[in-house]
């Protein structure tokens, strides 16, 4: 009686979530997939419904697309690694800070969100460009004789991604590190472990769920990132997000753009599934 | 074995540990007893090396370890919440402390097996801590702490998380274990029954100071202060005309005989005995009678008294 009631109540609470996910995630994805099977035409909309795999064949046969996928994965991976290297000590320091200071430190981590993402990337352009703040400062103190190439290259893209996504690494790391009881580290010390040994044998393994969550939260959006490579990147290393944008808005080839989007979504679902499997087996 | 002199520690407020001198012998069960906030846990943490004293000196086994970090002290701790590593199975928890010792892997495995046998957990080597009961977790914590063959085992409220029946069983086992190993056990507890039941000596703490160090019998029969008398067991404090008090334990009061008169206010039946509360000219006194002894109805007046040497005089 009560169990049936509870089950019905649960359905009642969960149904709107699924409805929302269905309308905003599943339906658009299905639409994108459907268009990716279509054929490009001159018209509005610029495609015709069909059931062809030729768009996928094109994506897989042209090294431009494969290369852009590889670039995106590589740049996202190195950016994720850099975020982890910077974010872990940050999260660790915040988690170990006196309790009354933690709120303020976390506030500083999310402070950049007060400003629009786009404006912050434009701000980096202003800092990095040949006539920007950094170059003029370096030249005026005589540290550089001519402007350094700080923008329109992979360095700037890495910088932009690390800057923009660092909070997404810090926050999940913080939440796992903060939950690790201090007495576990003390127990490790008690059992003869120096601080570094206690860290690598106790703290770090226990923080792995946070590491995985942080890496996924950075790697996945960074792979499909469009704004940062568009504004800070150069023409040498196109990333897949930007290529997709070009197909859509410049070439007006919606089916190819949709094929890229479908492949991107599918390939990014893979690390999530793997992480989920790992979590299930370690539990 | 352990020698503290003038050890003090404060955390910015009043001293948590305030000039403690203490010697604990080899193979002794020593209990730090006191109410919460008296500094007993801080004192244990100072011995373990988790806190550094503001003043004073800590010696273990004749060596000055005042500044030594916990990983360089010949003591191990059983933490209050056990602090088992949740990502490691039982055997790996016990093995953890052996990995930094100069042993071969075979010796380590043998030591782990020996420790698990000691706490009767041989069949649970591959379980994770989350798959164990509270009592089993506590055994793992003890096995893990003993694996390094410490000279002293520190136990922070080791029984407080167990239910009553298990607690009494575990008390017995801990005393037997200590007798077998012959190393010193230093307990922290707020439970006077526990302290009395297992200790060779008890140090009673109040506001950061050790106010009395004595055997359980001495502590009960000859409390050094009003605080100790009231903290350890029930006591009647009878003010003396010349100052101070006469501390009389309930069972020392004789009912129906003696020079004094009192009115029965209330009786409480506790099974093996009965507590009788008497309104007297000294205030309300508590007497203890055998559970099957005849007791007058509430409100009746009865005689009572005590033998000449039944109480102990305390000055403060």
Structure characteristics:
heterodimer, A: 283 residues, mainly alpha, MetI-like fold, two-stranded antiparallel sheet, B: 316 residues, alpha+beta, Rossmann fold, OB fold (Dihydrolipoamide Acetyltransferase, E2P), 2 domains, six-stranded mixed β-sheet, four-stranded antiparallel β-sheet, 8 helices, elongated
Brief overview, please?
The complex is a heterodimer of chains A (283) and B (316). Chain A has 12 helices and 2 strands; from the N terminus they run H-E-E-H-H-H-H-H-H-H-H-H-H-H.
What can you see in these coordinates?
The complex is a heterodimer of chains A (283) and B (316). By secondary structure, chain A is an all-alpha fold. Chain A has a single domain (47-282), classed as Orthogonal Bundle (MetI-like fold), CATH 1.10.3720. Chain A contains twelve helices and two strands, in the order H-E-E-H-H-H-H-H-H-H-H-H-H-H. Chain A has helices at 2-36, 54-61, 63-96, 99-110, 117-128, 133-140, 154-179, 182-190, 195-223, 227-232, 240-250, 254-282; strands at residues 39-40, 47-48. In chain A, helix 1 (2-36) packs antiparallel against helix 12, helix 7 packs across helix 9 and helix 11 (240-250) packs antiparallel against helix 12 (254-282). Chain B is of the alpha+beta class and 316 residues long. In chain B, helix 2 packs parallel to helix 4 and helix 3 (105-118) packs across helix 4 (134-146). Chain A binds chain B through residues 181, 183-184, 186-194, 197, 201-202, 205-206, and chain B through 48-50, 69-71, 76-77, 79-81, 83-87, 96-97, 99-101, 144-145, 148.
Mean pLDDT of chain B: 91
Q: Portion of residues in helices of chain A?
A: over 70%
Q: If helices are DSSP runs of H or I spanning 4 or more residues, what is the number of helices of chain B?
A: 8
Number of domains of chain B: 2
Oligomer: heterodimer
Shape of chain B: elongated
- Indicate the radius of gyration of chain B in whole angstroms: 23 Å
- Average residue pLDDT of chain A: 90
User: What fraction of the residues of chain B are assigned to beta strands by DSSP?
Assistant: 25-35%
Helix content of chain B: 25-40%
Shape by Cα distribution of chain A: globular
Structural class of chain A: mainly alpha
| Structural class label of chain B | alpha+beta
Strand order within the widest beta sheet of chain B = 6-7-8-3-9-10
What is the overall number of helices of chain A? 12
Number of domains as seen in the coordinates of chain A: 1
Number of strands of chain A: 2
